[in-house]
Amino acid sequence: AGDGSGPVPGDGAGPPAPERVLFPPTFSVSEIKNKQRRHFMFLRWKQQQRKEKLALKKKRRKEREALGDKAPPKAIPKTIENQRVYDETTVDPNDEEVAFDEATDEFAPYFNRQTVPKILITTSDRPRGRTVRFCEQLATVIPNSHVYYRRGLALKRIIPQCIARDFTDLIVINEDRKIPNGLVLSHLPDGPTAHFRMSSVRLRKEIKRKGKEPTEHVPEVILNNFTTRLGHSIGRMLAALFPHDPQFIGRQVATFHNQRDYIFFRFHRYIFKSEKKVGIQELGPRFTLKLRSLQKGTFDSKFGEYEWIHKRREMDTSRRKFHL
């Protein structure tokens, strides 16, 4: 080429030169002493890794297209979830014992359509603005729910009043440093009571590309991945918050998705773009729950009998062990 750099690709002087490798195989970013230079080289190294990964992906796709029907099946990537340790309490839908428990548990009147959900949403004592707004938005998601702001009234005094007024469930939103951080759900009149740790709370105004305000239509409810006996109970408890017959004309969906024992809540509206395409808009709010305990009966922090308590040091011995 006249400058000592070798033949130029496409000029007929020979095959194109192979792409120059940016980093040797033994390259280590940590050996660079200068902080700015180290950061710059790390970004270049990450960029090269992405290019190599994309090139390998394209190569494999071309090989599969060339082989056609003879192509080997795609390898299933290993994840923590599909490597999950088997739980002996996993629910079989055809199990007679499970069917009997469902017919006789505290939620049977709801699933038999003998009762209509009526929810009381309250807070910890003297809540701050963010918790108040979250409760108000949660009330627009759960039909037939009423918000009451506590001012020093103990839960043990609230529960009998709720039962007398035919409330079927009590939700208590706790806060710490002005941020909602806990949720207590008690099914009335006989329990059970679940205590969740709450995190990643996002109000409607904090969600990007959100849809318009939700309507008063009864939403559909989707429960994902509640597979064990404990998870089955929690799923039935969450389902009992919503009326049994959704109004599909509203196109609103409330989703409780369990993944690695974290319950992610999302509220969407779906839109039919065509006969084959459907789009969704998130309406909010959104939050994440982590079960801390499940107690028999209504709320009783001192003398209550617990069905299940999360004990970190005893239960979290394996990353592949899940309880819901």
From TrEMBL:
Keywords: Ribosome biogenesis, rRNA processing. The keyword Transferase does not apply. Residues 63-72 have a biased composition (Basic and acidic residues). Residues 1-22, 49-75 are annotated as: Disordered. It holds the Pfam family Brix. The keyword Glycosyltransferase does not apply. InterPro entries: Brix, IMP4/RPF1. It is found in: Nucleus, Nucleolus. GO terms for biological process: maturation of 5.8S rRNA; maturation of LSU-rRNA. Residues 1-13 have a biased composition (Gly residues). SMART domains: Brix. One of its GO terms (cellular component) is preribosome, large subunit precursor. Signal peptide: none annotated. Residues 117-300 form the Brix domain. SUPFAM superfamilies: Class II aaRS ABD-related (SSF52954). One of its GO terms (molecular function) is rRNA primary transcript binding. May be required for ribosome biogenesis. This is Ribosome production factor 1. It comes from Chaetops frenatus (Rufous rock-jumper). The gene is Rpf1.
